[in-house]
Each structure stands twice: as C-alpha cells, then as structure tokens.
Design a protein that fits this description.
The structure is a single chain. 82% of the residues lie in helices and 0% in strands. It is mainly alpha-helical and 106 residues long. It has one domain.
C-alpha cells in the first residue's frame, strides 16, 4: 500500500476518533460542572445559531460546534489556558488538514 492510499484510508477515521475522545472528555467535565449552567454561559449569538426552544439539554450539547464547547469551557474554567491553546490549535489544524485530505481524494 502506498503512502497516499494509506492516508486516504485511515486519516479521516483517526481524526474523527481523536475528536470523539476529546469531545467525550469535555462532555464528562461539563456534566460535572453542570450542563444547564454550561448552556447558560454560551454566547447569545451561538445559542441563536444552534438551539431551538424544544431541544433538550443533551440535544443542545450534541448540536454545539467543537470550537464553541472549547471556548465556553475556557470561559468557565473547566479547562485551563494551556488546554485551550492545544485544543484550539488542533481544531484549526484538523480543519486545514481536512481540506488537504479532501484535495487528495480527487
């Protein structure tokens, strides 16, 4: 198997798995902090973008963008500045690399 074929086959899966682990870890921390309190501290424009009135708390958490979760966790002290910097970098890095991955698929 060539390197290009290997990247095509496994890169997307590994990236999704890593983000799933990060999101699950943050979700546990949010539950310890209090899901309702967490949702109350999200910026109003983000609330308007992601939520409807009939969404449950768990549905609202599932609808949130990873970056919104990371920013709100920093704001509430759920994660520290160093963790925020690493997660923020990884978020944007994964977006850039995903664009390159999609270009490889063509």
């Amino acid at each position: 198997m060539q390197k290009k074929d290997f990247i095509k086959k496994y890169y997307n899966y590994s990236l999704q798995s890593l983000w799933k682990a990060v999101r699950n870890n943050l979700k546990r921390r949010i539950e310890l902090f209090g899901s309702y309190e967490f949702l109350q501290n999200i910026d109003e424009d983000e609330k308007n973008r992601y939520f409807r009135k009939d969404n449950t708390i768990s549905e609202k958490l599932a609808l949130l963008n990873n970056l919104v979760i990371i920013k709100t966790c920093l704001k509430l002290g759920i994660i520290n500045e160093k963790s925020y910097t690493v997660l923020n970098f990884f978020y944007w890095f994964s977006k850039i690399v995903m664009i390159q991955y999609l270009a490889l698929m063509k």
